Every structure is written in C-alpha cells, then in structure tokens.
Amino acid sequence: RTSLFVPKGQWVFGGTVSYSTHNNRDYDVLVIDDITSEGYTFKVSPMIGYALGNNSTLGVRFIYGRTLLKLDGANVSFGNGDSSTDLSVDYYYALRHSYSFAAVYRRYIPFGEGGGGGGGGGGGVFGGSQGKFAADSPIKGTFQRGFDFELGLSPGLIAFATNSMAVEVNVGMMGIGYSRVRQVHNQVTTGTRHQSAMNFKVNLLSIGLGISFYL
User: What one-character-per-residue DSSP string does 4-48 give?
Assistant: First the structure.
C-alpha cells in the first residue's frame, strides 16, 4: 500500500537559525587556567524546494555562518614541580565566516495515515570561507580563504504539526568531502592545506532540527 505524503507540485520552505555567545573571566577547565575570553557563533540556513513527484522533492539551501573568538589570556600547565611545562597565551583573535550552497534531494516514506514519516535525503554542498587570525605582541596576523565540497546522505524523521507545517530531525550518516585552505601570514609567507575524507558511520554531532512549510 502506498500513501501520499507530499503531493507532486507542492512547494517547501524552511530553515534553521542558531546563535550562541560565551564570556569567560579567569575560568579554569582541566589543564587550562585563567581563561579570559569572549565570542559568539551565528548560523542561518534558509531552504526552498519543489516536489517533482509524489513524496519526492528537490531543493536548494543556503548556509551562512560567522564565528568570533577573542582570547585575552590563558595558561596551560603539564606536570608538577621541576618537570612541569607551562604555556601561556596573552592575546588571540579569530574571526571566520563561511557561506555555501547545497542541492538537496529528499524521498519521503510515510509511516501511515497520520502526520509522521521518514525517509532519506542527500545532496551536494559547494562553499567557501574566509578568516582573520591575530596573536602575540607585536601582533602577527594571518588571513585565509577556503573552499569546501561535500556529498552526503542524511536520513531523518518528520512530523506534521498542522497540514502545512512540519518539524524535521535529520542526522548525517555517510558522505565524502574535500577542502582546501590557503593562508597568508603577515602579508609575506603563504601556506596551504588540502584535506579529503570519507565517512560511512552515523555522525551524532551533525544532528539537525528545523521547521518546514508545505504550500
């Protein structure tokens, strides 16, 4: 028996927004003492999709994130007595923002006549990032640009609160990715980093919660 969950020709709108801040004054954690820092993390991700067929949608998602960290001081100690090693940071500043576009395909599998269901989703993500870092005294600065590409699969669950609004939960399960970062230090020297990864396990750190509107 088949059940119509998302009819052909239906538009889907949704997105997620998150914002967090932190402020530490002489805070201690494990081997790090006297942490004095402040910062924030902001991320927004709107999405639009269209049902090309019954219970299947194709959409586009834009993702923007911004992170700021200002560290005014921290001490790290290893060992005791004469054999101890002490490290200190007097100043560190990091500002990074990222932006990416994602093509997303979803296949819905209804659980029954109610408003619940699940299914699999997958797609590709293309994006980039920029960052500024400064440390030490006199100040040493680094500017970097990056490029990211990823293909992944994200199964999840969906529950309709009303006929046109639903709450969605998904988790990253598998995927492949590639990233490239180029840095310029003090406007003189340059450095690059290339990274590729393949993942075939559930990533509990990539659990996503969002709201979608079906019109």
Answer: -SS-TT-EEEEEEEEEEEEEEEEEEETTEEEEEEEEEEEEEEEEE
